[in-house]
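Title: Comparing notes on inverse folding

I've been comparing how different people in this forum approach sequence design from structure. To keep things fair, I'm posting one structure and asking everyone to reply with a full sequence. Here's the target:
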């Protein structure tokens, strides 16, 4: 019996059952989320249609949400607190029947999105959160750091509309850039002057947030990446690879103003990577 349990055949069975369970649980969560979004949208529609029902509904006025919340919480629990009902109503108003919300996002994601009045900004964050599988916490952080405004600043009107419709599409080097980058997750007090080494260490200690702030497609290659040119050793502060554009991205951290020699040194680094590190498709 013990031989059977430890056989490759049994291990295969164990893995198959585990995979089946994980897939089924994920599908169940996804189905429950879809139904929850549909339900909350329908509740919002019922509230709006009641409000629009004519003078015989006027007696409820602004107190409708409060009364509904009290009665529904008594029947069904805290899911129908006043704040949630307000967002259900907004959910219906801001997502018409033809605008299907992404079922990959949770109700908590949509609560954050519904706080945005601008439909272009809201659409952009929705697309980005879906494409990059942001957690609710990451969505909050990107909103707080004004990601949409930073991306939109470099785009024309058509580009902004496309940003709202598809999110940030990375197809050329210019699409990588955000102006400025926001690294508030380092929790460095504003008056404190850090050295370049301290800044590098703080970014690497928060690598996950750093990658998310850099944008879609970045993978970390190395820190203080050593290269040798003409028998002289140099170290690049941070090296990344962008899997969509298929190129290396080199970062040299400077606290003060950039000098001409800094630009010359970066060009040296770029020349080395083009010659020694790039593959034929890079």
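Reply #1:
Here's my take.
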């Amino acid at each position: 019996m013990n031989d059977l349990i430890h056989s490759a055949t049994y291990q295969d069975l164990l893995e198959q059952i585990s995979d089946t369970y994980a897939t089924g649980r994920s599908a169940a969560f996804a189905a429950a989320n879809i139904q929850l979004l549909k339900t909350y949208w329908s509740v919002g529609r019922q509230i709006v249609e009641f409000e629009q029902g004519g003078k015989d509904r006027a007696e409820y006025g602004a107190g409708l949400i409060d009364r509904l919340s009290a009665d529904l919480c008594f029947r069904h629990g805290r899911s129908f607190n006043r704040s949630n009902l307000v967002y259900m109503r907004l959910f219906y108003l801001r997502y018409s029947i033809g605008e299907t919300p992404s079922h990959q996002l949770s109700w908590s994601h949509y609560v954050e999105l519904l706080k945005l009045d601008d439909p272009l900004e809201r659409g952009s964050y929705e697309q980005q959160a879906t494409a990059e599988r942001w957690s609710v916490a990451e969505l909050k952080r990107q909103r707080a750091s004004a990601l949409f405004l930073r991306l939109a600043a470099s785009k024309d009107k058509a580009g902004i509309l496309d940003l709202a419709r598809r999110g940030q599409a990375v197809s050329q080097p210019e699409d990588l850039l955000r102006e400025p980058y926001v690294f508030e997750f380092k929790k460095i007090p504003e008056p404190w002057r850090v050295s370049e080494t301290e800044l590098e260490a703080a970014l690497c200690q928060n690598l996950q947030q750093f990658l998310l702030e850099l944008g879609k497609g970045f993978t970390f290659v190395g820190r203080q990446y050593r290269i040798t040119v003409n028998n002289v050793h140099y170290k690049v502060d941070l090296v990344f690879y962008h899997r969509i554009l298929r190129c290396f991205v080199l970062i040299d951290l400077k606290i003060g103003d950039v000098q001409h020699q800094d630009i010359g040194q970066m060009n040296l680094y770029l020349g080395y990577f083009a010659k020694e590190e790039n593959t034929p498709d890079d």
